[in-house]
Amino acid sequence: MKYRFVILSTLLLSGCQLTGDAQNTDIATKKTPVAATPVKATPTVSATKKQPTPATPTVLSPQMQEDVWQRISMQLSLPVPNNSAIRQYRNWYLKYPNHIATVAERATPFLHLIVEKVEARNMPLEIALLPIVESSFDQFAYSHGRAAGLWQFVPATGERFGLEQNWWYDGRRDVAKATDAALDYLEYLNGMFDGNWLHAIAAYNSGEGRVARAIRNNEKRGKPTDFWHLDLPKETSSYVPKLIALGDVIRHKDKYGLEVPAIANKPALALVEPNIQMDLALAANYAGLSVSELQSLNPAYNHWATAPAGPTHLLLPIDKVDRFNTELAKNNNQGLRVERYYVQSGDSLSEIAAHYNTTVKVLQRANQLSTTRIRVGQPLMIPVSLKDESQYTLSAPQRLAALQAAERDGYKRTHTVRKGDSFWTIARRYDVDYRQLAKWNGMSPRDTLSIGQKLVVWDKNDNAKRVRTITYQIRQGDSLSSIAQRYNVSVSDLVKWNQLRKNAYIQPGQRLTLHIDISRSSGS
């Protein structure tokens, strides 16, 4: 009986618990009690199994981008203030999109190489854009302040940072070496100005002394010393905002509607070191390139070969390196063609060097000569070019010839440099600006002139087209006054043109330069 009571009590208690749960459900749902209606079981998720989460898009690092411009854009770090200078240059870049297109084409072989060098030093990526501001990525750029190459080094600063400059080679135009030198210089400047990159970049343009003085002057006057408050030359005051504006338009090119031609974000060039002097035509043949293609990648070499005493390295397209190395080895590491020449009566080493378009030092080295003395019949080994110099279309002589041949306003004259000539004296003689005269001839007004050098002069005078320059050989019985009378010029002109003393003695066979108006001259 007791047992039955226990069972009954247990059932009653259980029934109360179930009924209570059902009542709560009814109140909450207003539905038929659970106990009265069978409910279909709902599958449950195991506690150990997680629901799949949406995939997070992979963000590619700058180095993984397809376009090197995007690689740069993602790492630009200099502040972009909203000031009139930035707006001015931003608007200029947007107004002239062809400039960016031209720059991108020139930069294509070199930009990846430069970006990697900048990244390796943990420098702002704006630095990789400096060649656009400096030279528009023209590897042959030369300013009338004597600055050369992508990074526009002047001779003294180039030498200071290890860039050799001689007849054969100008390291300021060596893209790889000049980039290293420019980054060395910028790192030095950044340290000098306590990590202030705007000061360092400004000093790269105008010199550290000028920027340091501007900072000291502001300190004395209690003025701010940030770049934007410094009293600097107009060129430098424009230089920094021009660079910052350039970075801004490249970074936000889609926002501004600017099309920047893509450049593959992968190495385009590799440096090879033959360790021998090489004729550029032969090197181009080994690599399967044209001479002009090779020269465009290696603009530091002024003439037909790499430098005899080095450097001898070459930048080549990556896909041409194996072929170059194979052909070089196949030809027993031959880099030059050598001719044997026997010294003749009247020869000098300098005349022989000039004839073969080389230098005295090269001939001395090739023939182990300690002096310039040579004797008749002596054999000389002379390195010679595979091609005529005129076929090296991007060599220094050819670039100069193209520049001098360019058509300009006025009448073209040719002046042969004489002893004592300078740009100043020649410009006065022809009544032209000496800076313009230097520009016409691809030089700086401070460059040294060589006797016999040919200069182009463009005379805008209305009568210039009637003027001809002739060389007159003095005959027996001539005098300055008789020559002047014959060609309807003045004795003072003859004296000035030929740098003579007024009462100078002249003799038969001597040559004089005359600039005569053919409409007035009756000379024969």
What sort of overall outline do the alpha carbons produce when their principal axes are compared? globular
What is the number of helices?
22
Decide which structural class fits the backbone.
Answer: mainly alpha
Radius of gyration: 39 Å
- Unreliable runs, pLDDT <50, ≥5 residues? 1-47
In total, the number of strands is 8
Q: What fraction, in percent, of the residue positions are helical?
A: 40-55%
Oligomer: single chain
Quote the average pLDDT: 85
Strand order of the largest sheet: 1-2
Strand content: 5-15%
Order of helices and strands: HHHHHHHHHHHHEHHEHEHHEHEHHEEHHE
* Largest sheet entry: 2 strands, antiparallel
* Head-to-tail CA distance between termini: 162 Å
Keywords: Signal
Signal peptide: 1-22
Biased composition (Low complexity): 47-58
Domain LysM: 339-382, 413-457, 470-514
Brief synopsis:
The protein is mainly α. Helix content is 42%, strand content 9%.
Descriptive account of the structure:
With 524 residues, this protein is mostly helical. The chain contains 22 helices and 8 strands. The strands form 4 sheets. A two-stranded antiparallel ribbon has the order 1-2. Strands 3-4 form a two-stranded antiparallel sheet. α8 packs across α9 and α13 (280-287) crosses α14 (291-297). The chain is globular and about 115 Å long. The model is unreliable at 1-47 (pLDDT under 50). Residues 39-59 are annotated as: Disordered. This is LysM peptidoglycan-binding domain-containing protein. Residues 47-58 have a biased composition (Low complexity). It comes from Salinivibrio costicola (Vibrio costicola).
